[in-house]
Amino acid sequence: QVQLVESGGGLVQEGESLKLSCAASGLTFSEHAMGWFRQTPGSEREFVAGISVSNSVTAFANSVKGRFTISADSAQNTMILQMNNLKPEDAAVYYCAASSPTYAYIVPRASTNYDHWGQGTQVTVSS
User: Fold this and answer.
1) What sign for the dihedral angle of Cα 108, 58, 31, 111?
2) 49-72 confidence digits (pLDDT tens)
3) 5: Cβ–Cβ under 8 A, 6 or more apart, which residues?
4) Which of 1, 12, 97, 115 has the greatest count of CB atoms below 10 A from its CB?
């Protein structure tokens, strides 16, 4: 059974940083692309960043490019999203996701290409 558990969310001031972690179990990390999505009430879940663990290809939403970084440790089955210079518009529930094995070497941006999801962690940014 695949399980994804996010941690690291919280309340920060504008301009500060947060590090989100995703611990995965029940899957072989290198066989999937891993992604971070976020969602606010009344909005669609949107792609934030993703990484192909097998070849370290990364992708970012334009809104976070240059501020967020993503990394993955296949030995620990852990993915990290480092968020710097946070803005109020970054506030959301952040979800970790694992793609179907079809996407082991690329990073899909559509949520429909991800088969497994964590429960989410809340990020709040005050101005």
Assistant:
1) negative
2) 999 988 889 999 999 999 999 999
3) 22, 23, 24, 96, 118, 119
4) 97
